[in-house]
Design brief:
- It is a single chain.
- By secondary structure, the protein is mainly beta.
- The chain has one domain: Beta Barrel (Porin).
- It has two helices and 13 strands.
- It has a twelve-stranded antiparallel β-barrel.
- InterPro entries: LOR (IPR007612), Tubby-like_C (IPR025659).
Amino acid sequence: MEAAQSYEITGLDLSGTEYTVEQTGKDKNFRPEYEAEDVTGDTIFRCTHQMYEENDTFPFVDENGNELLTVEASSAIDIAGDYVLTDSHTGEDIVVLDNDLSLLQDTWRIRDAEDESLLATIASRGGLVTAGRKLLPAGQFIGHRYEITDSEGTAVGTIESDFAIQDQYEITISDSSSIPVGPIVVGTVVIDAIQDT
């Protein structure tokens, strides 16, 4: 497998093991806005989920408004629910996020953008909680818990949120040597935004 660092995004230093991703509100067009911070509270990126004619796009910018990357729904790769992460500095597609969405479990895979090899998986916790989030009247406020596994299926981290009106996720990586940390932090935004639509 290629080194995990080869999948990182130019301009993002994600060498730590703990990050926070928060939905901070909605813009004037009612599109969800997000912000990610490192463990010291410094802003890593901001993002607004842009939805135009059923085409999901996510431009990510730094604290000064400079574009770092985009994530966009794509039909170019023949896998349902594909989102391609592109480095804005190099113009290169880095990874693809693909989704198996079901009533009982949400499973997202992070794949190499060229050969589609599996790099990591993000899977939601048990069926009752997932179903409750989708079916109960206030289910969207129930906290999330995802497990991050590497390409071999080894657990290497978690993504968790508490009961809240606006989601805030705590990302904890126990072993970053075998997974692409940047795409996982970015993927947390994509997962929340897609579930919200």
